[in-house]
Amino acid sequence: MNMKSSNDRWCRIIEQHQRSKACNHSSIVTMSDMTAAQESPHPPQRLGLLLAWHGSITETLMKKALSTAGLSPRHAMTLMHLEEGPLGQRALAERLEVDPSVLVGILNDLEGEGLAVRRRDPADRRRHNVAITDAGSTALAKTNAALDEVELSLFSAFSRADQEALRALLGRIDSNPDHFTCGE
C-alpha cells in the first residue's frame, strides 16, 4: 500500500468516526474522541497502528492550524530553526534533513513572502546565510499560538510529567528515516 492510499484510508476512518459521533468537519477531535476511537474496531489495538492513527489525527490538526497561520509544515519548521539566529544554508538543510535543492525551493517561497532573507556570507562569498525577517517572526508567533492551541487540546488530559514521559518514549522509537517515503 502506498503512502497516499494509506493516508486516504486513515482519512476515511476518521470521517467514519466523526460521522458516528455526529461531529462536523470543523470540530476539533478531542482526547475523549480519540479514546472512544480506540474502543471502536478501528484501528486495531496494535501499537504501530495506534501510533499511526493518532499521528494522522495530530498531523491533520497541526496542518489545519498551520494553514490558518498561513504556513506549510516545511515553512514553519524552517522559520523555527531560523528563530534561534541566522544559519548557513547548508547547516539549515542538515537541520531540516532535506536535500539542499529542496531547501532552495522552501527559501524561495519564504523570501517571496518576505519571511526570510538570504545573504552572502562576508567571510566566504560562496556561502549564503539565511535569517528570519520581522515579518517571519510575526508569522512564526502566529503559528506557534495556533500550534499551542492544538497541543493544549490534544494533551489536556496529560500532566506535564505525562507529556515529558511521552516525549521520552517517542524519542526511543526506532524510526529509521530511510524507511520513510515523503508524500510532499
From TrEMBL:
<dbReference type="InterPro" id="IPR039422">
    <property type="entry name" value="MarR/SlyA-like"/>
</dbReference>
<dbReference type="InterPro" id="IPR000835">
    <property type="entry name" value="HTH_MarR-typ"/>
</dbReference>
<protein>
    <submittedName>
        <fullName>MarR family transcriptional regulator</fullName>
    </submittedName>
</protein>
<dbReference type="InterPro" id="IPR036390">
    <property type="entry name" value="WH_DNA-bd_sf"/>
</dbReference>
<dbReference type="GO" id="GO:0003700">
    <property type="term" value="F:DNA-binding transcription factor activity"/>
</dbReference>
<dbReference type="Pfam" id="PF12802">
    <property type="entry name" value="MarR_2"/>
</dbReference>
<dbReference type="InterPro" id="IPR036388">
    <property type="entry name" value="WH-like_DNA-bd_sf"/>
</dbReference>
<feature type="domain" description="HTH marR-type">
    <location>
        <begin position="44"/>
        <end position="175"/>
    </location>
</feature>
<dbReference type="GO" id="GO:0006950">
    <property type="term" value="P:response to stress"/>
</dbReference>
